[in-house]
Write a structure and sequence with these properties.
Largest sheet: 8 strands, antiparallel, barrel
Number of helices: 1
Strand order of the largest sheet: 1-2-3-4-5-6-7-8
Shape: elongated
Order of helices and strands: HEEEEEEEE
CATH superfamily of one domain: C-type lysozyme inhibitor
CATH architecture of one domain: Beta Barrel
Low-confidence stretches: 1-13
CATH class of one domain: Mainly Beta
Distance between the termini: 90 Å
Radius of gyration: 36 Å
Strand content: 35-45%
């Protein structure tokens, strides 16, 4: 009889330990993205790389313009065979005008011209590519 009692106790203990096991964890539910309210404006992060534009002018001259700040207030103008020159934005009736000590860059749409000391040195410049 003691053997039967031991067998019965062992069976009861085995049955109790089965219920003590934790159920398998359920996979977390994927959260749906929250809708963006209509009055919220999402701004693009400021780029660290300046916008660079390549113009091809009459006589196949290539001129490069690089925006130096996010507000487009300063540019670096590179003429063929010359070092870049910094120009600052100036008020204009139409298009964009950038002025330096000797140079003036006029741009409107995809066309541009460049003056040096009041005389046009590059005209008929057409935007070829822009990157940045």
């Amino acid at each position: 009889m003691p053997a039967l009692r031991l067998l019965l106790i062992a069976a009861l203990l085995a049955g109790c330990s089965r219920g003590a096991e934790a159920p398998p964890a359920a996979a977390p539910a994927a959260e749906a993205p929250l809708p963006i309210p209509e009055n919220v404006v999402i701004e693009e992060p400021a780029t660290t790389q300046p916008m660079t534009m390549l113009y091809r002018c009459e006589g196949d001259a290539k001129v490069t313009v690089a925006m130096l700040d996010a507000e487009s207030e300063r540019i670096a103008l590179t003429l063929p065979g010359e070092e870049p020159v910094e120009l600052s934005q100036s008020p204009s009736a139409s298009g964009a005008k950038y002025v330096g000590e000797q140079l003036v860059f006029w741009g409107k749409g995809d066309e541009a011209s460049i003056e040096r000391d009041g005389k046009t040195v590059f005209s008929g410049c057409k935007l070829q590519a822009a990157a940045g």
